[in-house]
Amino acid sequence: MGLSKYCFSKQERLTGKKKIEGLFKKGSSFYLDDFQIRHLPSGEVGHNQILISVPKRNFKRAVDRNLLKRRIREAYRLNKHLIDKAEDKPALYIAFIYLSKHILTFDNIQAQLIKCLERLGNSYAE
User: Fold this and answer.
1) What are the backbone angles phi and psi of residue 36, rounded to the nearest 5°?
2) Would you say 86 and 14 are in contact if contact means Cβ atoms under 8 Å apart?
3) Cβ count within 10 A of residue 40
4) What confidence tier does 75 reach under pLDDT thresholds 50, 70, 90?
5) What is the mean pLDDT of residues 55-81?
6) Separation of alpha carbons 118 and 68, rounded Å
7) Distance between CA 77 and CA 109 in Å, rounded?
């Protein structure tokens, strides 16, 4: 296994209009610190797929939105093992929506994301 568990591959990105619409229509959500998390079991076995959103309403400059998305993606990549699942359980579709109006440091984002991932892991652990 080694370092491969710390990769963020293309299969882990949530793409496709139908999948994203399904997540936002049928998925559950919760708020934790500066994030809203939407999640939905995918019904298929494979990688968890994530979507990261930083609203243009809060950050007008694309540079700021991209910085925050990079920080969130990196924090997820380093801590995704917290929601690793058994081989036979369906994967999750997850949307991380950044709600703060301030640019947080990587350490703050990572601490909040760890809390979110632990809560997600506990809700799907059986």
Assistant:
1) -110, 130
2) no
3) 19
4) very high
5) 94
6) 21
7) 13
pTM: 0.89
- C-beta of residue 99 within 8 angstroms of C-beta of residue 79: no
Query: Is the pLDDT at 2 greater than 60, yes or no?
Result: no
The helix or strand, by DSSP H or E, that contains position 106, with its residue range, turns out to be helix 106-124
Both tokens of residue 113?
Answer: 């994301």
How far apart CA 100 and CA 34 sit, in angstroms, is: 5
The set of residues, in sequence order, having a beta carbon less than 8 Å from that of 48 and lying 6+ positions away, is: 12, 80, 83, 85, 91, 92, 93, 94
Whole-number Å distance between alpha carbons of 5 and 58? 33
| CA separation for the pair 27, 124 (Å, rounded) | 13
8 A C-beta contact, residue 51 and residue 14: yes
> What is the three-class DSSP state of 35?
strand
pLDDT given at position 87: 62
Q: At what angle do helices 62-79 and 106-124 cross, to 10 degrees?
A: 50
Residue listed under structure tokens 């076995």: 45
CB 26: neighbour CB atoms within 10 A?
A: 11
Amino acid at 6: Y
